[in-house]
């Protein structure tokens, strides 16, 4: 069972088409571009959850699993997996669907940790704007490590 099985529906989902300008010198999606998009989805997920001003504090458990080629479509999903007093953990997955193929394959995943801040940029306590999120979050960090 993976994280994508844990939630019925992601909090944020974004679709993209992979163009030639997104590729590295190996002809596959540049990892930095994938990370940028994943961070954007994680940010939107965290902002939707809190409604607060937030910043990315850390990114970890990043895995690039499958190369993504030009012309492929990717779906990037974000789910809140843990909310503490001052940190919010968002699990992001990037799924690839090659042209002329109906099957989706996980291409990348990772955890993005956010901190809410005040207008001066100082850390503040996390509030939960959206309390009706998916409740199945037990063991998520353990699942994320597998």
User: Structural class, from helix and strand content?
Assistant: alpha+beta
Rg, Cα atoms, Å:
16 Å
Query: Which whole number gives the mean pLDDT?
Result: 85
- The level of helicity is 10-25%
CATH H-tier superfamily: Hotdog Thioesterase
Model regions low in confidence, pLDDT < 50 over at least 5 residues: 1-8, 131-146
Question: Biggest β-sheet: count, sense, barrel?
Answer: 5 strands, antiparallel
**CATH architectural type:** Roll
Order of helices and strands: HEHEEEEH
State the separation between the terminal residues, measured CA to CA.
9 Å
What is the name of the CATH topology? Thiol Ester Dehydrase, Chain A
Tell me the name of the CATH class.
Alpha Beta
**What is the spatial order of strands in the main beta sheet?**
1-3-4-5-2
Describe this structure in words.
By secondary structure, the protein is an alpha+beta fold. It has one domain (3-145): Thiol Ester Dehydrase, Chain A. Helix content is 21%, strand content 34%. It has helices spanning 3-6, 31-50, 140-145, and strands at residues 12-17, 54-64, 73-83, 88-97, 105-116. A 5-stranded antiparallel sheet has the order 1-3-4-5-2. Strand 3 (73-83) and strand 4 (88-97) form a beta hairpin. It is elongated and about 45 Å long. The termini are close together. Mean pLDDT is 85; it is low at 1-8 and 131-146.
């Amino acid at each position: 069972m993976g994280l994508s099985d844990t939630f019925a529906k992601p909090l944020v989902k974004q679709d993209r088409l992979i163009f030639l300008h997104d590729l590295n010198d190996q002809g596959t999606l540049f990892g930095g571009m994938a990370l940028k998009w994943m961070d954007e989805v994680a940010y939107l997920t965290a902002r939707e959850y809190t409604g607060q001003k937030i910043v990315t504090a850390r990114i970890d458990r990043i895995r690039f699993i499958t190369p993504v080629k030009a012309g492929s479509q990717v779906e990037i999903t974000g789910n809140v997996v843990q909310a503490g007093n001052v940190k919010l953990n968002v699990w992001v997955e990037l799924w690839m669907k090659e042209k002329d193929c109906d099957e989706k394959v996980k291409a990348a995943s990772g955890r993005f940790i956010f901190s809410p801040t005040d207008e001066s940029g100082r850390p503040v306590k996390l509030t939960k704007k959206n309390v009706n999120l998916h409740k199945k979050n037990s063991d998520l960090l353990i699942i994320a490590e597998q």
